[in-house]
Amino acid sequence: MYRSHNCGALNASHIATEVTLAGWVQKSRDKGFMIWVDLRDRYGITQLIFDSERTDTAVFEMAKTLGREFVIQVKGTVIERESKNKNMATGDIEILVSELTILNVALTPPFTIEDETDGGEDIRMKYRYLDIRRNPVKNSLLFRHKVAMEVRKYLSDLDFCEVETPYLIKSTPEGARDFVVPSRMNEGQFYALPQSPQTFKQLLMVGGMDKYFQIVKCFRDEDLRADRQPEFTQIDCEMAFVEQEDILNVFEGLTRHLLKEIKGIEVDKFPRITYDYAMKTYGNDKPDIRFGMEFGELNEVAQHKEFSVFNTAELVVGIAAPGCASYTRKEIDNLIDWVKRPQIGASGMVYAKYELDGTIKSSVDKFYDQEDLLNWAKVTGAKPGDLILVLSGPAHKTRTQLSALRMEVATRLGLRNPEVFAPLWVVDFPLLEFDEESGRYHAMHHPFTSPKPEDIALLETEPGKVRANAYDMVLNGNEIGGGSIRIHDKATQQLMFKYLGFTEEEAKAQFGFLMDAFQFGAPPHGGLAFGLDRLVAILGGQETIRDFIAFPKNNSGRDVMIDAPSVIDDKQLEELHIRLK
Amino acid sequence: MYRSHNCGALNASHIATEVTLAGWVQKSRDKGFMIWVDLRDRYGITQLIFDSERTDTAVFEMAKTLGREFVIQVKGTVIERESKNKNMATGDIEILVSELTILNVALTPPFTIEDETDGGEDIRMKYRYLDIRRNPVKNSLLFRHKVAMEVRKYLSDLDFCEVETPYLIKSTPEGARDFVVPSRMNEGQFYALPQSPQTFKQLLMVGGMDKYFQIVKCFRDEDLRADRQPEFTQIDCEMAFVEQEDILNVFEGLTRHLLKEIKGIEVDKFPRITYDYAMKTYGNDKPDIRFGMEFGELNEVAQHKEFSVFNTAELVVGIAAPGCASYTRKEIDNLIDWVKRPQIGASGMVYAKYELDGTIKSSVDKFYDQEDLLNWAKVTGAKPGDLILVLSGPAHKTRTQLSALRMEVATRLGLRNPEVFAPLWVVDFPLLEFDEESGRYHAMHHPFTSPKPEDIALLETEPGKVRANAYDMVLNGNEIGGGSIRIHDKATQQLMFKYLGFTEEEAKAQFGFLMDAFQFGAPPHGGLAFGLDRLVAILGGQETIRDFIAFPKNNSGRDVMIDAPSVIDDKQLEELHIRLK
């Protein structure tokens, strides 16, 4: 072993102890007669001192040559520091070095290895192994490990069994694109990497495993939006002999456990709202409820008052921005510009200031009197001092715009505190959603989700109105988990494939094994999957997942550090029975 | 929830309780006026009773229709059984059923769902979800989970951090074949699936993570020998600032912990033997030391005695089969036939019976007298009652043959008890091995293994004699883990690639990122990887890994249940910029 202690271990209780430490040179200060070196490892920083009077000359001279990120081993004595640093675990002591070994030299790193670095995203990715030395990244990876361990412990204690499902599976054209793997031994055939272990976990339920989980990599070959990765990690779960209520309780329990164990935060029972309510109240199926600003629909109180913009709109809807009646004209114009940006696409915004004296001053005073505007305040829940912001237009589009505005206002008001956690369940998702492009319905969750029994009759007449036993867990405006009660009989599954536009042959070729399995005694079952990358990032108080992934890929799906993907040689292509186009 | 208790939970303390159970019909016995049903779930079996006098007629009639593997829910009262079954946790009670719901019917399963099944390997694989209902498979998966949890707990408690490394990496022609994944976004380029996270774990050490582990899937597109899988699971570990001794201690500790926690077995400190000693003493670098029969080299005592077979042989080597002096001529001929089979390839076998009266009777009595043969006994460690078995020929080949014979004799003698555990370390592996086919040296472990410093000079002169800081953990004749101290400086790594026949360009193209990383302050580091599938199987007392994998592939790399790999459509090929040959 190259060390007797790590660089975070020593304190005043060790004074006069002979120790051996190893680590990286964080920085050194050469005062001529005295050299201080901060020695860093994963566990902390310990100050080394080389003293021209007390240190052997050869050692002292060698210490002068130490550069940033050199790897060294030192022997020495723990002594009390003259000027203590109360902000460091090791701040009371330093090591008077007697022996110094340079274990490895280092080139000057391309960016500073400090909490605040001067390195841009690209260079940090290329030298990710240096980026990982920085506390923000290192601590994110340690944090991720801690979360994963707690998840495993909690579920295992509840008799869940982690089962590894295969990575080399079968390609299914439904949904997102698969990554495929040509088979050498089976000419002309391909494996696919799983987008999720969905069918396997259902087969485990048919197989009687009863309670399954797995922390597992999944793969989607989609064009990468910001903060998405082609490979990502799920906490994948499934239970047999359960109803929706049981699943919500178990995984609400898991999330409360994590908040308590990891963050020390106790949260109340999660609110549950329906998808319809979420869309109407927040314009969004993953509402951030750390703050209010619920939507108030103003059609009744704002239409037919000579203001043609509202009169011709399908929906007039507003929110009350708390305490913003004091906004200047400039601040309000800025918000109007914001909603008119192409990314949001509103044609304009109406506002009404609910002054502290109880009067309301609006941008449409010529159409609305105080009584009208007090009704707006009532509907949007505005109080004196608030600013009412109103958008109008086609219902769905307007809700989406107001949802974006609501989040923007909350951000400006500092209401999205990453150390506040407001989880909830959104339930009763639609079973199907209409896809304009293909002109047919798609499964909103996936084709294995069961319709609510009372809605099955609607499949023939109004498929878009059929609700599913499907649910999402939402945390601070992010969907962190989602699942459903599954279909567990062949007839319903066949019916579902039919409604989704599969021919009988297609359904059999792709999912025949699952429908076969349903004939041999499939129990009622359901489950859910959490996105671990996102969950960990949110618990860690961060907006982006990238620092919680050791070796992420860029937006072109490249690993710029190892330079992958890359070309392969002709012999390999030959063996795989493929060629390039 | 479909149940108040599971099928393993109820006992005499629950008598008179109203309960709801759900599960599968294991079997039913219809005695006309009385029907008994064994209801099964993951947790156990509970006996249900339907009684024509006490049960509602409609329920009773429905009970008559229940077939094997039907999924049912029952309500009823826990009552005391008349004839108790002491072998079952629930054997004191039964449920007098008042309500019965058939949750799902079942076709007759293609094989019996019992501990001893009538299903062959192929049919069990096709209906793996039914096979998993059987206790031997179900319990193997639960056992695997338990082992994996203990591994994570042990390493985590020692400050190891589990870090997820990427699955979409870069193809490297070295070693086994990669599975590759065509990139849609990077035309003509391919990812590879990792054969191991080797370079990433080394980069994590360069990144200061200090102690890393991961339970991770790895992939090798090799022709599948019996009991190998194209995707397999490793417990992958790496540590910085350590020497070989530290690594051996940590992972010996892990293995002792598993044996104790999982099997309740305490083992002594593991023996450590060198590779050379293992080859000389057991003819094998993964010796089974649950039994003796160490090799005795007989050249000195058996050559130059007029027996030309021995005189012309490079090596004459024997073992003493304990207690086998009583073998009949037929039993011995059977062993001779066994070593002469083409799989073993010996041209013959000499034997000598060390009788209980102290005399020795050999198959070569005309060349050797009692004194000679007593010397054989001394060298092989034979005692009166033992049978000395001797092979001769070229050294390496003969050792391999005798190793196989040693294992066969041990099997016949019942010395390979799966509930006895004899772990050991084999150390000082050669760095390189000569490959006849390519006419050059290959890395025995992998190209990142460090040579022993004292042997580096031999690289130029006798590369085959250079020893590595490489070690295997062996358990009951299986290599269950292996690792090494790594190279951590660019110059040595470059030298190694040179000796392995890489051009400078090839080395840079494939592993440039690693050599770059070594320039920025790489610490000394090393590690090891366990094969989890094999480790779990051995701990579970089984010879084959297949039942410890939920959804294994067959010897052609196919998943016969889901029928993968399979063809993909032309549009997919088009998008991936490839076509079939």
Automatic annotation (TrEMBL), chains A, B:
Record domain Aminoacyl-transfer RNA synthetases class-II family profile: where: 144-552
Compartments in which it is found: Cytoplasm
Keywords, alphabetical: Aminoacyl-tRNA synthetase, ATP-binding, Cytoplasm, Ligase, Nucleotide-binding, Protein biosynthesis
EC primary class: ligase
Start and end residues of each stretch annotated as Aspartate: 198-201
Annotated binding of L-aspartate, by residue: E174, R220, H445, R486
Record InterPro entries: Aa-tRNA-synt_II (IPR004364), aa-tRNA-synth_II (IPR006195), aa-tRNA-synth_II/BPL/LPL (IPR045864), Asp-tRNA-ligase_1 (IPR004524), Asp-tRNA-ligase_1_N (IPR047089), Asp/Asn-tRNA-synth_IIb (IPR002312), AspRS_core (IPR047090), GAD-like_sf (IPR004115)
Pfam families, per the entry: GAD (PF02938), tRNA-synt_2 (PF00152), tRNA_anti-codon (PF01336)
Catalyzed chemical reaction(s): tRNA(Asp) + L-aspartate + ATP = L-aspartyl-tRNA(Asp) + AMP + diphosphate
Superkingdom classification of source: Bacteria
EC number(s) per entry: 6.1.1.12
GO MF, one annotated term: aspartate-tRNA ligase activity
Residue positions binding ATP: R220, D221, E222, Q229, E479, G531, L532, D533, R534
Protein's job: Catalyzes the attachment of L-aspartate to tRNA(Asp) in a two-step reaction: L-aspartate is first activated by ATP to form Asp-AMP and then transferred to the acceptor end of tRNA(Asp).
Family recorded in the similarity comment: Belongs to the class-II aminoacyl-tRNA synthetase family. Type 1 subfamily.
UniProt subunit comment: Homodimer.
Protein name in UniProt: Aspartate--tRNA ligase
Lineage: Bacteria, Pseudomonadati, Bacteroidota, Flavobacteriia, Flavobacteriales
